[in-house]
C-alpha cells in the first residue's frame, strides 16, 4: 500500500507527497498531460521535440543539467502518446534545487532558433536510428496507421514523417508550450525522507504563484469497433528473420476489461511457463522469439503479439500457430492452477516495482492523471478479482479476426 498525501494548489497544480524514511534520496516527478495525441497531424513529433528543448535553459538558468548536477542530482524524461514525464533525483537536503529548476522552466523557456535547430538535428538522428537504421524499424509506423483510422494514436511519438520535424520552427514550439505547459495541466509527485509540510511549503513558494493560460480542451475521435475489418500488410525488407506483428484494439485504461487484457498478455508471454513460449518456441520451435504486451494507453490501446519466425518455418505456418493459441483462449476457460499462478506473478511484479521510488512516483502521477491516484493501491485487488469467466468473455471480444491488424515482415 502506497501512502501519500494529495494537495491541490490554488492554480490547479496537483501535488502528491510520499514520505519515505528508508532513503536519503528525494525523487521528484512532474507529469504534463500532453503527448503525441495532442499534436497537429501536419506537425507530428513536436511533443517529443519539446521534451528535448525543456533541458535547453530557462529564464534564469542557462543549463538545467549543470545546475542539477551541482546539487548532486540526475534527471531524465520521456514522452508517450498521452503524457510527457520529467523526473529527477537528488539528496534530500537539496530538494529546493529541484523546485527552483522546475519552476523556472515552467515559467518560461529561453529558446532560440539556434537551440531548436540543434535539438531538431538530435531528434532527426534518433528518428533515423530507430526506424531506418535497424531491422524492423518501420514496424510501428506501419502498425499504428493500420490499427487506427481516426484517433491520433495513428502516428508514433517520434513523429509520422521526418519532414514534420524539419518543418517545425520556434513559433510552433512556443505555441505548443504555452498551450500545454501550465500548472493546471500537471501532476507532481515527490517521494523521499522530507516532511510533507516542507514539500508543500516549497511547492507553494516556487509553483503556487505561476499563472495558468487558457485551458486546453480535447476533442478526440474514438475508433468505431462496429466497422472494423481485418487489415494486413506485407513489408519486404532485408531482416534477420521473417516476423509477425498482430495487433487488436482493446479497451481504454479505465475500462473494466483493461486488467483482463493485461492478465491475458501475461498468460501468453510472461515467464518461461507461459503459453506462447512453451508452445511455439520450446515445443514446436516455430518462433525463435515471441512477446506479447498491451500498450497501456489512456484511450483505446492495442493488444500486441510480435514474434520472429524460426529459420526454415513458413510464415503461414507461424501465423496459423498464433491463431490456434488465440482460439484456445476463446474456447476454453483458463484453469484454476494457471489462473492463480499468473495472479501471483502479477502481484509480485507490482509489489517489486513499488520498491523503486522513481517507478512509484511515475506510476502514482499517471494514476492521478487518468482519474484517481488511489487506483494504484487497487491494482492487486482488481487482478485478484478476475475470474476465468470474465477472462474468457474478454478474449472472445478482443481476438475477433475483424479486430486484428497484421503486419508481416518478409524476405
Task: Give me the secondary-structure category.
Answer: alpha+beta
Helix content: 40-55%
Calculate the terminal CA-CA distance, rounded to whole Å: 50 Å
What topology, given as strand order, has the largest sheet? Answer: 1-2-6-3-5-4
Strand content is 15-25%
The fold-level CATH name of the largest domain is Cytochrome Bc1 Complex, Chain A, domain 1
CATH architecture level-2 label of the largest domain: 2-Layer Sandwich
Low-pLDDT ranges: none
Give the strand tally.
11
Counted by DSSP, the helix tally is 15
Question: Quick one: biggest sheet?
Answer: 6 strands, mixed
Give the count of structural domains.
2
CATH classification class of the largest domain: Alpha Beta
* Mean pLDDT over the residues: 96
CATH-wise, what's the superfamily of the largest domain?
Answer: Metalloenzyme, LuxS/M16 peptidase-like
Radius of gyration equals 23 Å
Shape type? globular
Q: What is the ordering of alpha helices and beta strands?
A: EEEHHEEHHHHHEHEEHHEEHHHHHE
Characterize the quaternary organization of these chains: single chain
Short recap of the structure:
This protein is of the alpha+beta class. It contains 15 helices and 11 strands. Helices cover 41% and strands 19% of the residues.
Name the descriptors.
411 residues, alpha+beta, 15 helices, Cytochrome Bc1 Complex, Chain A, domain 1, six-stranded mixed sheet, five-stranded mixed sheet, globular, 2 domains
